[in-house]
Design a protein that fits this description.
By secondary structure, this protein is mainly alpha-helical. It has helices at about 5-15, 25-45, 50, 55-70, 75-80, 85-100, 105-115, 125-135. It has one domain (about 5-10, about 20-145): Orthogonal Bundle (Hypothetical protein af1432), CATH 1.10.3210.10. Helix 4 (about 55-70) crosses helix 7 (about 105-115) and helix 7 (about 105-115) packs across helix 8 (about 125-135). The longest helix is centred in the N-terminal third of the chain and has 17 residues, at about 25-45. The mean pLDDT is about 85.
Length: about 160
């Protein structure tokens, strides 16, 4: 989180979303996604065989890294709507993970979760990040929910965490 490069990406997103009425992709969202992912992992709500045989602190660091990096490609999608922020974010995340001291194997796992965090047909760590990203949003209390492209007025979001 202290990386100047990471902070530059987050600032670019903040500027692009300054007037956004809907959910933002800011540090608050990153924190909520990280917390939700950690809860889902610890509770066993999402099976993550990739994290089961590693030390608890290392698993937590991987979870938080994935959560804090999962939307960093968002500014590129705003610049060019044909780009997928998940795929772009996976590319941007790799050098940041190396800088933070993650091993190649840890980085591969985190990058995969970032690249696939928009797909609900995931399994393991990829599914953990997908679910946390969705379940971290306070849609139940959103004043513009009826206008949100992710929810039709008839579809009310569930609270699962």
């Amino acid at each position: 989180m202290r990386s100047p490069v990471y902070n530059d990406y987050m600032e670019k997103i903040r500027r692009r979303e300054a007037a956004r009425r809907f959910c933002r992709h800011d540090r608050g969202h990153c924190w909520e996604t990280a917390r939700a992912a950690h809860i889902l992992f610890l509770s066993g709500a999402v099976d993550c065989p990739e994290l089961k045989d590693i030390e608890a602190r290392a698993a937590q660091e991987m979870i938080y890294a994935a959560a804090f990096l999962h939307d960093i490609g968002r500014f590129l999608e705003y610049e060019d709507p044909s780009k997928d922020h998940a795929a772009e974010g996976a590319v941007l995340a790799r050098p940041l993970l190396a800088e933070a001291g993650f091993s190649e194997a840890e980085s591969e796992r985190i990058v995969s979760a970032i690249a696939h965090h928009r797909r609900k047909d995931n399994t393991g760590f990829d599914l953990l990040l997908y679910r946390a990203d969705k379940e971290s949003r306070p849609c139940f209390d959103c004043p513009v929910l009826s206008e949100c492209k992710k929810y039709s007025p008839a579809k009310k979001p569930r609270i699962t965490v």
